[in-house]
Amino acid sequence: MPHLRFYDLHTSEPGSIRAELSHGLLAAAPFTSPKYLYDSLGSRLFDAITELPEYYPTRTEAAIFAAQREVLASTLPPAACMVDLGAGSCAKAASLFGALQPSQYIAVDISVQYLHGVLAALSEQHPGIDMAGVGTDFSASLDLPADLLAQARQRPINAFYPGSSIGNFTPDEALAFLQRVQRLCAQGASGGGLLIGVDLVKSIDMLELAYDDPLGVTGAFNLNMLRHINTLLGSDFDVRDWQHVAFFNTTLSRIEMHVQARRDVTVRWQLEGQACEVRFASGQRIHTENSYKWTLDNFSALLQSAGFRSSQAWCDEKGYFAVFWAQA
Fold this sequence. Notes:
alpha/beta; Rossmann fold; 26% strand
């Protein structure tokens, strides 16, 4: 019988969520965290986005992994502990099990409940891999349970962070996050490191189409967040009052997503018994997500600043996307 364990370290109180959302909406430049894009419908809409012809990252990264399977197998240490950050369906990691041959797999996701069914099926398919699911906000902490970490430290620790999600962090946040990843990997046996997907700078037209597709799927994904906020905060956003906006900020080298008021609108909610409201003028925006784009050189420098000893990268032939291996 496969060995399978679960740990739920994520404790997010409804009150703290409401306070976080209120703080962002009442700010001089209103904003929300991109994590609120992902309720049940939001997750399904994002899955649909990855199927769009305009959205290149998912299929381009998959093609790099497929093309470089043998190289990855000879570069990464075998029989390692694979720590999958933001594991979700675990499909990307599972597609590499044959090449990388991990002896331990730790799936980390904000929802450990979601991981139960996924890992139960995966452990049946790969009975030789010891598996665990950890529910935690890994963007804030990478502290694994003591017994799980003690087991992982007996072998190289390979962190896995595909999908270019590193782009959601500002450069300073990305550095702090990568420093935490490096410290985790350095606790294992020699040879461990980080395998990460990174979206690269390219033409503005291509970038903007990827985040504002003609079919409007990304727009629906972005606007659905307002309904999710209504559920979490008790606010009264009407999505018909808002439109999706996405553009490439050349100065900061990032795609920005916003929702923009179509008309003057007032949004109301209660927080700890107090009435709150914010008036949005027509054209005013709420900043919902960033997606920073990197060059090979500046991401290599970021990995070095985070404490990784060396790094190498593989790209698709058009130079749209890169997969980096950085040794801790």
